[in-house]
Structures
1.
Amino acid sequence: MEEEEKKQIRDLEDLPGVGPKTAQKLREAGIFSLEDLAVSSVHELVEKAGLGEETAKKLLEIAQDYVGQGFVSAYDFYNSRKAVERITTGSKALDDLLGGGVETQALIEAFGEFGSGKTQLGHQLSVNVQLPKERGGLSEPDKPAQAVYIDTEGTFRPERIVQMAKGVELDPDSVLKNIIFIRAYNSDHQISIVKKIPSLIHEGKNIRLIVIDSITAHFRAEYIGRSNLAERQQKLNQHLRDLLKLATVYNLAVYVTNQVMAKPEGFFALDQQAVGGHILAHAITYRIFLRKGKDRTRIARLIDAPHLPEREAVFRISEEGVRDV
């Protein structure tokens, strides 16, 4: 596509063959921008937006060309990675384990037994994302960062947010106002919530973090037995793809907690593994296994990461929040 043509395309309606009705169908399917369109699939456009297959292919080709989704050199990709930002966990040891903090354009999963710190970390990140960038957050002057907290198990506590906000010297009321909270009551509701997040962003919300606590609870409860396993994994896979698209297109971080189940052959000292199987394992960018340590400490083990070695870090959870030992 010529540069002059690109300048003339600013909205969905500017695309050849896209009128107000088609644009409305795309928005109803959660596609609000050319960037959203470029990371969609033909199947999604046909099934969710009601487009014909040939029209869908043509629109995808134009959108992908517009946002530059062609072949690039590793050098250019390396430079594009400089847009990635990081959120501090509150613990330097835990930040170092993750290569500098929780990364945008990525999915981070924490799994472990009850009381291992998964939910606490989700609360802490919802606070810390609101810190100014020089303090490890993603807020800019006059543009505070916001978090979406999706609670599937009834574990969100605003009182804990207040404690943590005071611990990093932020105004608790402002912090609470910048956390968009919603309770998800089943897996379909959870999926639909995530699909509505682009509309919040296009309404002006500065969402830089999504927390889901926990991502597998509803799927595990609703799809019981081997006969339902394939359907469960298919829906979970699509849900994870939606989250990864959000993280990539909008340069935000996604932090999810996960339940554990017994693993007969043993898994570290706790004989546990994360729920979700290979579908979840392959979709997640960073996997952290949390367990309790001595004297109220927590041990985080980095299980999987694209460019970091498997290793451990020790941190503690105090009244003020996640801190170094």
Note: Residues 82-324 form a domain with the Rossmann fold fold (CATH 3.40.50.300).
2.
Amino acid sequence: MKSAYLFFLVLLMLPGVALAQQASSRCPPLPASSGLQWEERVNTGFLACKARNEDGSKSINLLLTSRDPDLRLSKSRRVESGVFSGESLHWYLPDIAGRDETYLASRRITVVELGKGQYAQIWIDAPSTQDLAELLTLTGKLDVSAGTAYLVSGN
């Protein structure tokens, strides 16, 4: 009887543990329906977040940094407008040497200045243009306030 009680107590505590682990992430929350999970890497001055699906075929890559990424994006490669964490942006085709346009059609990259000394570099890899559209919509809904707070505080 005592072991059954402990078993149910542990079961009740598990969702709380999972939520605590999720809440401690500095990466922006993802909807459960997205099928993506964050991998987080933290160091002084940057936070790297990579959201991938189970088979790794599609991903959102996010680098929050206190340093200007100094990534030169050519206006000739600009393809659409968007939003990230409340900031307007332009998405660009990445400049990847040797890749054909069909490969690039489902990839995007951009840099956004979030505030003084806070930048986000975002790149999306999708297996299709339909998946790209879904990831662009999802990216537009992300809120990086926890990550930018980390850049300011270092905690």
Note: The helical segments are 2-23, 101-104, 129-140, 145-153.
3.
Amino acid sequence: MGTIWPEELPQAKGPKYKVVADTIRTAVENKSLEVGAKLPPVRELAYRLGITPGTVARAYTILTDEGLLQAEVGRGTFVAPPKSPILDDVWSRQLHLLEARDPNHVSLFSPRLADVGQVALIRECLQKVAQADPWLFLNYPTRDAYLPVRQAVVDWLSDLPLGKLDPDDVVLTHGGQNGLCVVFQAILRGPKPVVLVEDLSYAGFRRAGELMRAEVVGVKMDKWGLSAEALEHVLRQTRAQAICVSPEVQNPTGCHMPLERRKEIVEVAKKHDLQIIEDDCYRMGDARAPSFRALAPDRGWHVSSISKTLTPALRVGFALPPVGRGADLRRAAEYGYFGLAQPLAALVQLVLSDPRAKDLAGAVRKRMADYVRVTVNVLGGFDLVWDSEIPFVWLRLPSGWRASAFSRAAEREGVQVRSADEFALRDGRAPNAVRIAMNGHVPLSDFEAAMQRLRALLDNPPEQISV
């Protein structure tokens, strides 16, 4: 690396981080830096050039986002192999994020994970899959063949309080949303079943229920999430078969349901023969209380995925049935889609079994916490619900703003947030709030600039309240 750098940073117009990035890019293009070459640590290069570590880190981030460099946890930053021209021409042109082209545009609709080395791990595992036995690419998937994959999932989930978990209990799904649909197919009966959700909840609950031709009914919440008293009241009026809840990380409010409340809900569910579907897709840290599957082994269903821990791109999730309902869940999956494609299942096994995977998930969590801290530093003076291990915050708007008007104003400033209206039932009432998701695809400096633009809006509400 020393051969491409003079004694000081090359003289050029523009910010220093761009000069650093351009110098590295030129070195890669003229082969001064070969594929696989390791770059100096951020602080070392910063010291040599007489600039701040943040300047070098931003240059590395830009080049990593471009695919020119790749970062590997515990090993460093390397020159990445060249991309496939076909993928460059077809996929990248269509899927490249708008904020990569325009730093003033930042989407905070859904959490976007930072790359801390998981991309390199997935690429490595994909190469192994590509070299696998040819029969992997020629046969229908079978449950027996997937036993090692299901065992890898059990090991991946081993730290969670899920109750007794056997590989035969695991049903592999195409992400958490597909997992919800499969569970609904295993549970719901009759021409017009009823599904319950919290008044404010993940819109995917409603969509999955409607797909099953179910009536979706809201249940009132309090600061701990689902109210057991309200649940009892609704169950007296309906013959609901299932309720969807997110006790660890309530989406969108970010609240956590304590153990005592969970026990109250279990008692109500037993009294009315209600199935409990727990969506655990937004938890990034340790579970803080036993799952409903552990508390109610005869009626607790569990759905999770790797979308908020490693990557949402693979669309891999896990559905777990209560005791005695495994055959129902497997039947719904097998009738619906046979199972994951064999190469994808092999990839899942390799990734989850790799000893680096859990460390990478921890590194993702820490990196996303950096974005939460920036958000709190800028917006903490407002009514903000946050947790360093949750990849979004819930902002109750100050007087003068309506959620829909604030969302539109934010978008005009290049920042996209989700209004509370998007989490309410069609006939429900939404509070004056927005959900702000963390975006690890953009540099922290650009993310902070976006937060500052939101802060300016919050400090200056319109004179007339618009709806």
Note: Residues 357-379 form the longest helix (23 residues).
